[in-house]
Amino acid sequence: MITPPPGGLAVRSTPPLPRRRLLALLGTTAVAVTGCSTPGAEGTAEVTRTITHPLGTAEVPERPGRVVALDRRGALPHLLALGITPVGALTHKSIIGTDFPELVAEQAAGVEVLPVASGADEPALEPVTALHPDLVLGYSGGIEEVYPALSQIAPTVAVDVDFTDAAVSLRAIAAAVGREAEADRVVQEFEQQCDEQLGRLGDLGTVSIVLGIGDQQFRAYSKTGSSVARWLSERGATVVPEAEGAEASEDKTFMLISPERLDILTGDTIVVMYNSGPAGESALAELEAAPTWKQLAAVRAGRVVKINSQSSVGSYGFQGYASVLDELVSGWPTD
What we know:
Elements: E1 35-39, E2 45-53, E3 56-61, E4 67-70, H1 75-81, E5 88-90, H2 93-96, H3 102-105, E6 112-114, H4 125-130, E7 135-139, H5 140-143, H6 147-153, E8 156-159, H7 167-177, H8 180-199, E9 206-214, E10 217-221, H9 227-233, E11 238-239, E12 254-257, E13 269-274, H10 277-289, H11 291-295, H12 297-300, E14 304-308, H13 309-312, H14 317-331
Parallel strand pairs: 4-5, 4-7, 5-6, 7-8, 9-11, 9-13, 13-14
Antiparallel strand pairs: 1-2, 2-3, 9-10, 10-12
């Protein structure tokens, strides 16, 4: 492994991404930012900010130069969209088969690939230390057990994730790296794209959104259950069914149903979310092989749109959102 010198900078100015990829959204994570000064290595005052996050507080440099992303749920794409190239990021290989998502692989060409310590999200500490970071960002659930050790390496900020809205993690990351204005600009670009592209579809009518999760189980999402449902409902679509009854999740964002209950997908158009890889392909095959599925009015009419689930839940950042928006609009059936 090539170890960069401690004083090297990894933050560089990058040209704006094409509009279809320049995506970020500000959510509602509780982040407290206050200015203060701490002595620098040469006796000068280094300006830091106190960031309050789900696992505690951290004194973060005002403009961190060597950022490490320990989160496979959007941290790397979010940083790139904000104009920051991290010095290292957690590998995605066990999830998608490649080190980084294809959508950002070219931009991330110079990023050090960091292994996980186990099959989950816990990072290996030695490779992180070797990068001499001045800020570590990580998914709250993935770094909780090693947070004290990471905090000894560098200021560490934990990031919560909302799989219905990437705004939550984007806001936390933008605040931690001092790029709130960049995030504002990016989110405005994406909202404009949603308005323009979905607006061209005309009356969206009723829409049902479904995901196969394997073992003959499916999720039918409500209007608050996914990013795509939110985009559509905010622009006039009626998402059906509402999550209710014994099949509904506790937060009413989806209904867990069997193949026999696919008849509740009564939308004029059905959006099918699917995961990459063998498990996702198998779940999609289960859906399409179900007799009830084949009898749905939207299926018989050819009004079915397929989109990538990992992108649609924000795991590939707002670059992934842009890709999903393109898939949604290009695959939307025309009368």
